[in-house]
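Researcher: Hi, I'm a grad student and pretty new to this. My advisor asked me to get structures for two proteins we've been looking at. I'm not sure of the right format, so I'll just paste the first sequence and hope you can take it from there.
Model: That works fine. Here's the first sequence with its structure tokens right after it:
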Amino acid sequence: MRAPLILLTFLGLATCLATAAENSAPGHRRPNVLFIAVDDLKPMLGCYGDKTIRTPNIDRLAASGTVFLNAYCQQAVCGPTRASLLTGLRPDTTRVYDLKTRIRDILPDVVTLPQHFKNNGYQTVGMGKVFDPRTVNGQVKDDPVSWSRPYIQFDKHPDNALGFMEPGFVARAKAIQEAQGGKGDGWDSVRKELGGMPATEGEDVPDDAYDDGNIAKAALAVLPELAAADDPFFLAVGFKKPHLPFVAPQKYWDLYRREDMSLAEFTTLPQGAPEIAFQDSWELKNGTYTGIPSGPGLLPEDLQRELIHGYMACVSYTDAQVGKLLDALADQGVADTTIVVLWGDHGWHLGDHGMWCKHTNYEQATHAPLIIAKSASGGTGDGAKCASPVEFVDIYPTLCDLAGLPKPAALEGASLVPILDDPSAKVRDTAMSQYPRGGEQDLTMGYTWCDARYRYVEWV
């Protein structure tokens, strides 16, 4: 049995070396990279088998590449999962377990994924939510050393920052901001004054009335320049939906009928599981959003359907923005030479086990979408699906291999290039995630390992 294993390992290494040699040959321009992050996106997508959701553009990307059916984040909350993915290091290495620890306070010299591409001759440009800025170095937006030019930012203006286009709300929000003389903290100030914000909204407005439409517009504006440049580009676009609040133009709500929304099949906590394994849906129930009951217990079924409807509308809204990016690659003549990777930063509970949001080690929170296409116009592995487990720390070394870049020695993931070449291959037997409970003085860490069938969880 040892000889075949050694042979497969050698062949995988040979494939990576051949890719690197080809991409680093004299006169060969390295491939571009379109790096799409989607906030709170669970694998509720057509290409993952969901029959209700409308995601034609992400499904189109999936048909051009490889869908990783069992991809898992390292920790199911925005800051830590992004810090891990973008450094190729596990949370126990970054020590970023929350939304306040800054990775460069822990690892000041860490080389991030976009920074590594910049250091190797790429024009790296970022916009939207790529890193979680709270866990980088305290900058208003993302990590400056990672980018070739200043990060593209957007104003926190009440009528398009998070939604809430209803005229009365907008008028009151503007009045609050004006009374503060522009010195307030954006929506946090508005929320405090008004006693909460809507959790859902659908207004008859164009896509760029909300953030993700503006983010797509910014990407479309910079893409012609990047496509025409001599240097390859690494364009990172971070979409903010379907993160709460669930706000999207009405046309995306109209894709669905609320009465068709299926509620979670299992709404009770797993029998015998320790209390530490659960969370109380605090992100939804903490008073930020009006009309959401606080405290334990299931939400009313009509409210559950409204929230699920809103989540799905936001997924379709973001899907439309992804489609604009894919079309732009073709329009600029760079679809054939651009690697595209799309990932959701973690999963999301939609009422299963009575929980909402993320913040657990359960399947619904840790399982996330990952799609990689060697080119936006297709190629080897068109429409392939991989069932073997992979982790988000695998993305960094994979992109290095695809672009022909050297891999930093400290990376803790495995390249997925062998799977891109053969979807039946695997690079690991299980995927690991983790989630902490408690504070610095009483930290308990939950670790979970899973394959396509089983999950093991241990709290230590």
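Researcher: Oh nice, that was easy. Here's the second one.
Model: And its structure:
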Amino acid sequence: MAYEIELHYGFERSHDTYETYHAFEATDIEEEADDAAIEAKLADLLDCSPDDEDFDCKSMRITLPERTVERIRAEGYAAGRVGILAQMIEGPWNNDACKGYAIMAMERAGLDPEMIRKVSSAMTDCFDDTTVAEAGRYYVKGAVR
């Protein structure tokens, strides 16, 4: 899934040097942007006003690089924000429920009962020596793909 932002850019052309100066502001594409306020902010950053004949303001959508999206996700896991959100939506963390999901997945994948017992036992050890944030980072890094 591609993630986009709206990039607003203001620019002013100098009559003296014919150089162009730029200012930028990014907004979330799912929020209603106040174009006039953004234009005023960009003009202010360029020490001019939105009405100046040498000033113009435009915008475009740009896709965030996948590496940037991955880094943001990893930092979110590291900060525990994803875990907190999951708790708010699904309820508190529960090791037994997690193991239940894992066992259901292993059964669906066709693993034999002995292998399921080994994995379940190893998961208990992981719960004891790995924080939720560390496990989240491990998953985001793509331990198994």
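Researcher: Is there anything I should tell my advisor about the second?
Model: You could mention this: The first strand starts at residue 4 and ends at 13.
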